[in-house]
Amino acid sequence: MLTARQRLLSAVLHLTGRANLLKFEDRLLLQKRIFLLAMTGVDLGYTFSWYLRGPYSPGLTRDAFTIDEAQKKGMNAAEMPTPHLIQTRLLDLKDALGSKWNDPVHLELLASVLFLAKSSDADENIIGQRLSALKPKRFSQAQVHQALAWLTNQRLVP
Amino acid sequence: MKPPTLARRTLQKRRRVQTVTKRRSEHLRRAQFTEINASSLNQLRLRGEPTGDLQAVAWELATGGEVVYQTRHAVSAALTATFPAVLSGAVEASLTREELTLETGLVLERRGEMPATGTAFLYSIRAIAPAPFAPSTRLEALLRGVPADFAAHIRIGYLLHEHLYKLDEVRLQGILEAFLAATDVVEVKARRAGADQVTTRVNLRA
Description:
The structure holds 2 protein chains of 2 kinds. By secondary structure, chain A is mainly alpha-helical. Chain A is 62% helix and 4% strand. The relative contact order of chain A is 0.15. Chain B is built from 9 helices and 5 strands; from the N terminus they run ααααβαβααβααββ.
């Protein structure tokens, strides 16, 4: 039997588009989308820590696999209606990202910058330095600048 | 030229790893990062020094280069959740009965959450309109299976944390549905009793 959180996640995944959990990029997309959703104020109760590719929640991966298994056994967990607030936030996020919604590298950048920005009151330069130390040569300072501008525009950082 | 032996290849690989690790450490030093672990964080806390900034760069060296711990607190603190509404601190919310049941289930499931933040906790759900609370025949039937002191509180419109957390999931689900069906407005108290407890008046819509 799925938990309330797993049923809700299943309904959310129904809206985001089903992920192929056997593909790393799909799992990465799943992680970053739910993290960004959490940062818009939708707390599904997942704990995010810093991993090599930015914020990551082991509990989220576990739940996604559990849902996948349940669906293979014929359970339709997506029948539960998604609360209106979650639908709105999700669709707003999807619209704001446009084609980048399906770009794992871009979502990794946004989620990583947001995680570092939310973890402290550091300015753009410090966040850039941190990111380049945590992910050497992966993202440039210009990309960090663009990410911060987008996040500010979306009111995800002050 | 002869291919390198297994021992030589292993040695070469080890040197490459050492070089990468050394470069990474130098990079960190250049960026003026403080490499810290859970133990040094605790020492800072004990000294009463702020740890928020350091948490962001708490390095995973102690755990073999994979995970950074101690970061969640700072990120959670920065997050203003609007969902679940009952944890948001909103004075008033409008939810369907299904949405409130879902939110209750989500919060109750977080009982064993680690690290325990104390914020994801339901203290009580009180029926406030219509008043006085009148349990339905269905609710009365469900209450026959619960301890008498629990039933007495629920009959007068109080679902307290001991009911929410001690009743088994299936029984609680039935009771909660019947309880909410008999009321239009509830008051939900979240977090433990004390200064940071938040109360939300929830108008139940169809």
